[in-house]
Design a protein that fits this description.
The protein is an all-alpha fold. 68% of the residues lie in helices and 0% in strands. It is found in: Membrane.
Amino acid sequence: MSALMGTVSELPLDLRWRRAINAVLVLWTVGLVLAEVVLQVATGAAVLLAAILLVRGRLRLAPDVRAYVGASGVLCLWQAASPAVALLTGAAVSWPRGARYGQVLDSVAGAAAACIGAVGVPWLLLAGVLAGGWLLAALLGVFQNRVRWSVELPSFLKLNLGRLHENFGTEESPRYAAGGFFSHRLRFAHGAIAALGPALSVLGSADQARRRILAGAVVMGMLISIYNAFARAALGAALLVSVVALLLLVQGSARKMGLALLFALVAVVSMSPAWRTRMEKALGNIYGGEREHAMAVGWSLVREYPLTGVGFGNHKPAALATQDETGITDLLATDSHNLWLTVWAETGLVGLLLMLAMHGLLGRALIRRYRQGSIAATGALLSWVGFHILALVHYLPFHSSVYLSFSLIWGLGLCEGSERLRGREARQGHLEMEGAPGPTP
């Protein structure tokens, strides 16, 4: 398998190591639909395990994966050091708040998943957890969309029920914002884009009808979840990613049927009064609205501190310092509503180039494995495309639950073999490369 996939073979580690790594991956997958704190705990454990394996010299990564891991580490180090550089240069007057600064570790989350996944990945277990979890989240989202959620949640979960009380319909026919288990509609919808890639990959690549049916149900659940969350950018990204998946993975009548279903979804959206109102506000939000305002402030920070930025996590205090001149509000000052502009403003040109390098190396490695037939890499590549569509109008790393969801999918896409290859031709090619006889026609 390693000859075809270009990644390492499973490493001969103690059974306890394998169990620990499998538990971390399962916990991380549970966190995709359950709670941000679960994601953060699983990611911290993955980073720790990956660091131990690297220090002990127990990892043998493929060159392109090693390059991605190295770029992620360098980016993390620069982000960690950038507040100190900003203080020395006068670009900042204080250290960023602890919760925001702690997100520097998110930058190595995908690399950590790729490293520990080299030991072996319980693919079917992860797929089952992801599919079952998202179907439950979709059903919960349907309920939340129709019924005002009034159950008090434990305070330690730090979930804002106000997010579920937003009414995008009318008083006579309310349509509340659906947030799934996260109780936050944008985290719910943007996280769906991360998981949508693998579901589409299985739908277009699986050779068993029952798996395609289950994957199709999960895909529809995610699309409905995004629809019920009234997340405009997420819905647009989901539709574009679905079109890309149909063009890459499906042919003939199945492709036409898939495109027809997507067209029907667009028709349903256009017939919804609440969604029509949302879409009418979208262009005004970008051109002359809040997003343009936030981006303009971000550009002013870039022009003032182009090389080193204002320090990772310091976008909000730096933007609020211009409030008298720009009129920026506390909410809009959080980031520049664009990944690349926010990265440049916070970590300067150095951080921007490192971020470009990291995503470029990740994209190259995923494309290579997609061409070799990996289902996991195909799903990760679709998620990577969806991430960059959303990144045009959102700074996704601000919500750890969203960024860590993408990171897990990307890391798994770089792991050994994705258990199965796409279609009979890919498996036949693998058998020929290994010197084994192929199946009888």
